[in-house]
Amino acid sequence: xxxxxxxxxxxxxxxxxxxxxxxxxxxxxxxxxxxxxxxxxxxxxxxxxxxxxxxxxxxxxxxxxxxxxxxxxxxxxxxxxxxxxxxxxxxxxxxxxxxxxxxxxxxxxxxxxxxxxxxx
Length: 120
Fold this sequence. Notes:
The protein is mostly helical. It is 63% helix and 0% strand. The chain is built from five helices and no strands. The protein has helices spanning 6-21, 25-39, 43-59, 63-81, 105-113. Helix 1 (6-21) packs antiparallel against helix 2 (25-39), helix 2 packs antiparallel against helix 3 (43-59) and helix 3 packs antiparallel against helix 4. The protein starts with 5 loop residues before the first helix and ends in a 7-residue tail after the last helix.
C-alpha cells in the first residue's frame, strides 16, 4: 500500500492538531471527524484517528462513544487495508460503521489532489 501523500498527510495532521488545541469538545469532534475522513485509505492513520476519538470520548465521559470507538479501533486498520472503509464516514458512533457519507468539498479536493478517487 502506498504511503499517505504529503498533501493529505499535512491536512490530516492539521486536523489532529486542531482537535488537540480546541478548548471545546464540539470543535475537537469536528476536527477528528475531518481527520478520519482523510485517513480512511491508510491503515495506520485511520487507526490513529480512532485512537484520538477514543481519547476524546474518555475525556468527555461519553460511554456509548467509548464503546463504539473501541470497536472501531479494533477494525479500522483492517478495513483500510482491505479497501473496505466507507468513504466519507465520520467515524463517530452515531453513524453506522459501514455507512458511506458525502465528503466535504475541501476534503474531497485534498484527497483528489493526493490521487485518491473520492466517488464510488
